[in-house]
Amino acid sequence: MNTQAQTSQKNSSRLQLLFLLLLNYFTFALVTNIPGMLLPFWKEDFHLSNTLVSLLGSVFFLAYGLTSLPQGILLDNIGNKKTFLWGVSLVLIGAVSFALKPVYGIGMVSIFCIGVGVTALQLVGNLLVKKIDEDPAKYSRNLTLAQVFCGIGGAGGGFLIGYLIKNLGFGWQSIYYIVAGLSVLVAALVLMTSIPESKQELNYKKPTTADYIKLAGNPLMLLFALGIFVYVGIEVGVATWISTFLVDKFQIEKTNAAQVVSLYWILQSVGRFTGGFVLNYLEAPKALIVYATGSLISLIVAVLIPSLSIASIAFITVGFFTSIMFPSIFSLAVNSFDKSQEGTVAGILCTAIAGGAFITPAIGFISEKVVGSLANALIIAGTICFAYIAFLGIKAITQKKTSEQINSTNSSSNQNNSSKQKALV
């Protein structure tokens, strides 16, 4: 009876944690996508040029690049619960500040503050998903399913802003009051939920500065970080250039091209939902190989086949196949290192999200200065990035086989030594 009670309590705690994490993913995805939706409003209200108004959007991602690693180290030192509260507090402060004082300067500071908070929420959220199931092999599947709520939060922002402004007559800043309310709700749930801490686990050893430096220079860590870099880069790069490619090649309306981009992101969310089930039967390394191959084939079809409908469908399919890449690479990286360094591993990986800021302009540069064709530039970038992601899957499979062979050899050696000792006796 006592064992049953403990099991029931454990399952209840996991359900609470799961609900908290899903709300967390919804909230930080919502607030992440708000700047892009509000740029036209800010440009008009603040009387800004395209360059100045774009800074309001880019400052959010600047926070990712600058603070992911430091906050990963912070997470290692203060634990999951305190990091959760730290992150949601920053989002709350930033949202309330911009809602109360909707001016350009305050907006820059507030959005950066929100970006720092969201970075912390993503770091701790991605790691806590691992605690939902004790089987490490299911981490990638669970992280993929959890990120479906990122798609819901991101897609929901546009509808919510439209409803607040068109139907209720509120100003654009009202969305930040919604974010503030969600932040308070998340904070309350954090306080009420039993959150697992690495420090409570057996053999936990607090990492030293030398450990951090060693990890940052670890070849395997760098392989995974580069994987996140190229993944985010090609994901954002393809999505960014879809409209330009379709308009230039097929002379369609810009609004119609924009709808293809929207479907790209929607199909990615669908892919994450179905990918969660796929990863029940297909290990993450093998899934990376299959999905990277599917992405590359779809991209080649999209840019080479002279048909608008086929090109549109193929571009959308690229979004579908990119769905499981981030959680699969992330989970493989976290499972490859000591538990005491999970926060730092996550910090390094999230810093690599900066790939989205580099590969997109690189595609434009290649198309104008090197090959003279956007189609060829997309194929070159896609081939390099998706081939590398497939390579990561192959590397992970090879590493697993090598580890199993070593363990098998050690086991055989131990059995032989034991037999010899018995014979001597």
Main traits of this protein?
globular, about 425 residues, about 85% helix, mainly alpha, Growth Hormone, Chain: A, 16 helices, 2 domains
Please give a quick description of this structure.
By secondary structure, the chain is an all-alpha fold.
How many helices? The count is 16
Structural class: mainly alpha
List the helices and strands in order.
HHHHHHHHHHHHHHHH
Q: Please summarize the sheet with the most strands.
A: none
Describe the overall structure:
It is a single chain. The protein has 425 residues and is mostly helical. The chain is built from 16 helices and no strands. α1 packs antiparallel against α2 (50-78). The longest helix has 51 residues, at 374-424. The radius of gyration is 23 Å and the shape is globular. The protein starts with a helix and ends with a helix.
SSE blueprint:
Layout: H1 2-46, H2 50-78, H3 80-100, H4 104-128, H5 139-146, H6 148-167, H7 174-192, H8 209-216, H9 219-250, H10 254-281, H11 284-304, H12 308-321, H13 325-335, H14 342-351, H15 359-370, H16 374-424
